[in-house]
Structure formats: structure tokens, C-alpha cells
Amino acid sequence: MEKLVTIIEQRPVAARSYTAQDGTPKTFYSKGFILSDGIDEFYAEMTGDMARDAQPYDTALLHRMQGYIKQRSFTDKNGQTRYENQIIITKMI
């Protein structure tokens, strides 16, 4: 997916520690954005080194965002299966 977007809000980088399968400590980085393509507003997230190294983006400019959408299912407190879409940013210039 590729869209021209404006940035409504950019969140600070979040870091979360975890232990890899081989037992080494690692850190997971993410940075969230609320974006608009002029019609829709949506939340999208950068992950990994790209999120860690991202400088603040100029909110007055249009940006080209590339990414993909994935879904995840979860069970709510009533035992119902629910679905959620997640948008992952792979490039933003």
C-alpha cells in the first residue's frame, strides 16, 4: 500500500525489552502515527530500527507512506472472536 498522507500526530518512540529465543536480551522499538489521506484518518506504526532512528517529521508537508495492513484476531471478555487491522509503515518520506 502506498499513500500520500499528512501527519496529524506523531508519538514518541517506545522501547520494550524482551528475551530472544536464543536467550539474548533485545529491545523492540515502535513509533506510532495518526495519519490522514484527506478522506480517512488512521493509526499506523513504524517498528524496529526505522522507528528507533526516525527523526521528527514535518507535519506541514505531505509524506509518501508505504506499508502493509495485517489483521489479528483476539477473544474479548465475552468469549467472542474479534478482529483488528494493523497498519505497519515500511517507508515514509
List the main descriptive attributes of the protein structure presented here:
6-stranded antiparallel β-sheet; 63% strand; single chain; 1 helix; mainly beta; flat
* Range of helix content: under 10%
**Radius of gyration from CA coordinates:** 15 Å
Low-confidence stretches: none
* Class inferred from helices and paired strands: mainly beta
- The string of secondary-structure elements, in order, is EEEEHEE
What percentage of amino acids are in beta strands? over 45%
Mean pLDDT: 96
State the separation between the terminal residues, measured CA to CA.
14 Å
**Continuous helix count:** 1
What's the number of extended β-strand segments?
6
Strand count, sense and closure of the main sheet? 6 strands, antiparallel
Instruction: Give the overall form.
Output: flat
Which quaternary structure do these chains form?
single chain
What does this structure look like?
9% of the residues are buried. Helices cover 6% and strands 63% of the residues. Strands 1, 2, 3, 4, 5 and 6 form a 6-stranded antiparallel sheet that branches. The protein starts with a strand and ends with a strand. It is flat, with a radius of gyration of 15 Å. With 93 residues, it is mainly β. The mean pLDDT is 96.
